[in-house]
Fold this protein.
Amino acid sequence: MTLIKSISGIRGTIGGNVGDNLTPIDAVKFASAYGTWLKQQRTKDNYRVVVGRDARISGEMIQNLVMNTLVGLGIHVIDLGLSTTPTVEVAVPMEHADGGIILTASHNPKQWNALKLLNHKGEFLNGAEGQKILDIAEGANITFAEVDDLGEITKNDAYFDLHIEEILNLDLVDADAIRKANFKVVVDGVNSTGGLAIPMLLNELGVETVKLYCEPNGQFPHNPEPLKEHLGDICKLVVEEHADFGVVVDPDVDRLAFIDETGEMFGEEYTLVAVADYILGKQKGNTVSNMSSSRALRDVTEKHGGSYQASAVGEVNVVQLMKDTDAVIGGEGNGGIIYPELHYGRDSLVGVALFLTHLAEKKMKVSELRATYPSYFMSKNKIQLTPELDVDAILEAVEAHYKDEEVTTIDGVKIDFAENWVHLRKSNTEPIIRVYTEAKSQEEADQLAKDMMTVVESIAKK
């Protein structure tokens, strides 16, 4: 069992020992540290925090612990209940709140949960802010409110509707064109909150919806990471239903993947590519994705006369580089769409709306749209870590081994070869090294990954 404390929040498995897992005591400890940090940012009479959760089995327990801890600090809580990460992000500024917390472990299996922490803009905390909260948690210098100064909890279940309303008001979302296209779409909500939010959005856009695993009971019917090997059921159902395509989201609805009308993956990496192609066709500008994302975004951006930049992995890093370069669209190759006109956060709902508009204008099948983009193939692998492994030393040795190639070390080690690339980095959310490769064929990408993992294994044995 595992507890991972990082600048992006606290994530762990439910049950077990305090300090080794995400126990009730750990949830209270870090919620206290966050609330204390938040009150240090500015002096005021009333503090407000928006709190929502995905549909994990442990979600209600963890949310109640977190909310009542904030109440004990004298902070008022806006309780969104079952929600999505982007919905909470949208709600924070709309509520003029001081921050937000989402209880979700994203794509991790059901035994995991996490506290994802937001600032007053509804954006993830930066490294310095996250470290300050970790320091407060370890120092235990936390003062709770007197009885007359306790906070209050106010429930608000309107934010799915408000989030969708904000999306429909965007200039580049053409609801009329979508309605006229008479789309039929299958939705896999992995029995979490995407099973509520995505069908609501599609209904507002006049899209016929077939629901698959849309009951928000937290019993994930397959591995919740939206990868091809986990999505056999929706691939089959799209064909059986003669649907135009399928939509797959992860439990907190910040990752988005499509299935084409033939039941084949559109390609998780190509979610951002397609949406960027649409945006850049309307508005010239720059794009950003992280270092583990496909070169296809660079190609599409340059086709439209824009400039592409790659950030370190992590949403906060992508967002900062987007701001620095005035990017009009960005995100992560794992299916995360960040559209600044709405907010600076990965958002599957706005991704669906923009993709539908693009498809309605193109008047082509999803498989035909995919064929218009450069073809790259990725291989995503993991090396399980053990306590005795010195990961930093291994990555330094890999860097030295490939010193004659184009190497970038702002986030792990990325080696850019002429026709392909490989990126190794220690995960912030799991005890693993991620090994991502990309090439012009799947066989080449897989072989590159296998070769790199062999190199790492030989270095680890020395």
Remarks:
- The chain has a mean pLDDT of 94.
